[in-house]
Amino acid sequence: MPSLRRARAVVPLAVATVLAGVLLPAGAATAGEPPAVVLHAAPDGGGSACSTGRPCSVEGAKDRVRHLLPSGGARDIVVELADGTYRLDKPLEFGPEDSGRGAHRVTWTAAHGAHPVLSGALKVTDWTLRDKDKNIWEAPLPKGLDTRQVYVDGKRAPISQTTPAELNLSFAAATGGYTTTPANWGQDLLATVGADALRRVEFVYTGGNGPWTQSRCRVESAQIPTLLMQQPCWGNVTKRPTFTQASGSLPSMKAGTAPTRIENAYPFLHSGQWYVDQERGVLDYIPAAGADIHSLDVEVPGLSTLVKGAGTIDAPVRNLTFSGLDFAYATWLEPSSPAGFADVQDNLRLTGDNPDRPQGTCTFGTPPGTCPFGALTRQPGNVEFTAAHDIVLRGNTFTHLGAAGLVIEHGSRDNTVEGNTFADISGNGIILGSTTDPNPSDVGADDREINSGNTLANNLIHHAGADYPSAAGITLFFTQHTLVTHNELRDLPYTGISAGVVQGHVDNAAHPENTTNINSDNTISHNLVHRYMQVLKDGGAVYVEGHQGQTIKAADGSVDRAASVAHGLTVAGNVAYDQGNVNFTWYDDAGAQWLNWTGNLEWAPSRHRAAARPPAISTTSATSSPA
Questions:
Q1: Cβ contact 119:299 at 8 Å
Q2: CA–CA gap between residue 404 and residue 397 (Å, rounded)
Q3: What ranges in 136-216 are assigned the alpha helix state H?
């Protein structure tokens, strides 16, 4: 069913026109146009010839493109990547100077029959046995290399970890952290691993800030009888503000809550797990029983960004196509910082360090906080574009990634993400938009900063949220004229598609205007969502929060509901089944306004109760927050 559905997808005419150019053979041109310039790159390439016999590196090809653009006349440029792994030591960055000119494009594509991989990882070799009794092996790492992921033979390996039950350990609340039983546990661990390594020990709290969250904080220090946790993470997890006019809350985790598990220390190593010993500059790993360590492909991601396209409102990056490429093996180190991962929802986090002015609570919080409301910290993308116009990402694979797979930030218009696969991603699959600018005019920008006219179509997204399970497969923040259609989303720990999550808990029935934004004319249609909500709770196949359109007034000053709905969010013709933790399948939550739910189908196995569904047309919603 999924493959047939994608094969029959209807792509908008404008998108089809763009893709038609992508499908032309390398060097081909339309009538009256000069042939495209074709450059060649290879993993072992070098120099500047970029020919089939003397291919360039990818950076060399980018330099060659930049040289050709001003002098090459009005023509397309195609960079063909030969088969193999391109190990990047820095992000591949594209700006306005790398963009196609006029109506012409620069295309980065796989050579015929090739599967090029743009990798941010180091392949680890030179293993020696560190502990024969425990079968712990070690291999050297470059000085300063850190990571939050390791992959063995193409599969994500778990970091060293344990549980309070395994340690026979209990916790009680103390100022800034815990007291533990046995009281000397933290001190004994400190003596074993040292103060620096102790500060890398990470506590994981599944459901700690609501059943839709999984927060993470690291240990600061241990001194009997107290185990202190790092700030500001600990305060952002345990002391969250309350709201006036609230339809819900951002729950604080109760002091003394025991972690679900404890990660990242040498003594926690079990079979199949790894640990980076920063002091010694090595990777420790216990291979599975019977495995030959010397025959394993062990990849350690070091880069947090593989590809970055960065334009400005006045000079966008534009007219680039990426097709047939694998974006693979990248990490993301921010959760290792003192801010940790203070989860709010959909991988949005609290990172502010001023308890007297909470992040993004504006005038609605007690105490008042930073503005605009809901300006929580968004997860970055391992592939990311800002102020991007007419970018096409087609037929690529995004895999083994440590943050979001793809982020298309503010100021991005008429981009197409079509026919890609997103798999084994630590966070969100795709993020479109930003949480920090709901109304550009409020901060002095103009409407060019609005994301508009973007299309996400025919993509397969599965096994996102591998490290941060509150992730959605697709997340939309503030956008206009966005089309999300004919995607398949499956095997997800939380929500399939999320629209407008800014924790709009200050929008209640009496005050629906509190957090208005620029959202309008967006469509989520004909997507297939299944095997979702497999870990966390209180999400859905499509989850909507906050304003989704403008309130349009009639000539007499009354609200024109039909027009407001017509220019809001349409969720139509989607199919969902096999939800793990049932709440609502089609879920309009706090502050949701101007939605049209129509023709959506849901069913579930008999072990699940029937999921509630909203009315065919929902004009406004002030339902309870996920609490």
A1: yes
A2: 13
A3: 164-167, 185-193, 195-198
